[in-house]
Write a structure and sequence with these properties.
disordered N terminus; 5 strands; globular; single chain; five-stranded antiparallel sheet
Length: 271
């Protein structure tokens, strides 16, 4: 009986800390079910709510956990084939410089903001774990399955799918992502730990990442702050020094090019 009471108290504490929209979605998914005659179904909804409040790397060594607070600097610099973006996380350089890898302006060089949003808002990003050397190597099976190649491909595929859809939808600046996009994204999480995350959580992560992408693109870089406890990722300030001019390519996310060879440079020569 004491164990049951302890679990009940834990459930109450967890549910009280969840965002209202997550609880509303859980209630909607559970509507129409007779709780009294279907305790297993009720238990599943309670456990789903508990899982939403936990981090996937709880219990792992600190060096294998996504830091609960992140300060990220994204800085644009000249590169041999156009502008490149360097990322620093909590004072340490992370990953290789990114560029658009396209024949004309696309802005995809800023797409690490999408992986950061996955990490902060969902507690999941195999790509970010790899870049920041946070793979859960103390558990070889978790490292192999959840932080391995297939999971990283899913992370990248989701970022690319979201980017391609968002560029034709005003970057979802004033509306939620399309329902079919959310369905597609969740399908790509099949057999991965992040499949526990809801459509509402994914919509929040997508809009957070795109909002930061637009901001750093517009300002030619900037500082982002992430808080895993509140699942928030936000743009806090630009990096441009007084009197410094922005790069022309970063001036306006709404002027994104087609990326085709007919625009920009040709024959592979630097822009």
């Amino acid at each position: 009986m004491q164990d049951v009471q302890a679990i009940a108290v834990q459930c109450q504490l967890v549910l009280s800390s969840l965002p209202r929209e997550c609880l509303l979605e859980a209630a909607k998914e559970g509507s129409g079910k007779r709780i009294g005659s279907n305790t297993k179904s009720a238990g599943r909804h309670v456990m789903a709510a508990i899982m939403m409040s936990e981090f996937f790397d709880d219990g792992f060594p600190p060096g294998e956990q996504i830091p609960r607070r992140l300060e990220v600097t994204l800085r644009a610099e000249p590169g041999p084939y156009g502008e490149v973006v360097q990322m620093t996380v909590n004072g340490f350089g992370v990953g290789d410089p990114l560029m658009d890898n396209a024949w004309s302006e696309t802005g995809y060089r800023w797409h690490d903001t999408l992986h950061l949003a996955h990490a902060v808002c969902l507690g999941w990003s195999p790509v970010f774990r790899g870049l920041a050397k946070l793979k859960r190597r103390s558990d070889p099976l978790v490292d192999h399955i959840e932080d391995g190649g297939r999971a990283a491909v899913a992370d990248e595929a989701i970022a690319w799918a979201v980017f391609c859809r968002a560029r034709k939808r005003g970057w979802y600046a004033d509306r939620s992502p399309d329902a079919d996009l959310l369905d597609c994204v969740r399908e790509m999480t099949y057999a991965l730990e992040v499949s526990a995350r809801s459509r509402t959580e994914w919509a929040h992560a997508i809009r957070s990442g795109l909002g930061c992408l637009r901001a750093v693109w517009l300002h030619g870089g900037g500082v982002l702050r992430g808080d895993l406890a509140t699942r928030s990722l936000s743009f806090t300030s630009p990096l441009i020094d007084p009197g410094q001019q922005q790069s022309g390519g970063a001036a306006d996310p709404t002027s994104v090019g087609t990326g085709s060879r007919s625009v920009g440079w040709s024959g592979g020569t630097p822009a």
